[in-house]
Design goal:
Elements lengths: L7 H15 L3 E6 L3 E7 L17 E12 L8 E9 L12 E3 L3
Antiparallel strand pairs: 1-2, 1-3, 3-4, 3-5
Length: 105
Amino acid sequence: MHRPFAFAPLCASSVFVHLVAQAGEISLYTDDNFKGRVVVLRDTTDDLWRVNFNDAVSSIKVDSDSWEVCTDSQFYGTCERMGAGRYEVLNAALDKRISSLRRPY
C-alpha cells in the first residue's frame, strides 16, 4: 500500500519547529533602510558594545513580539518599546544611540 502523505505530519512539524526557533528576533542595522552592517539578536543584551554595535543602530526589524531598546547600557537612559515591524529610520532620540535591548515581560 502506497501512502504518499505518510510523512506530511512530520514535515509540517519540522517547519513549525523552525519557525518557532526564529520567533522573537530583532535585526539591527548600522544605516537607514536596513543597509550597512547587521546583527541579529534573540536574547537580552545589556551592552551592545559586546557585539560591536553600541551607538551604531539606524534601522531595526522586529520579527515578532516586542523589544525595549535603551540609549544607555544596563537598560538606562531613554527607553522605547518597539513592536513587531520595520523601522527604516529611527527617531532622533534613538538613532545611533541604542546601547541595550531586551524583551519586555
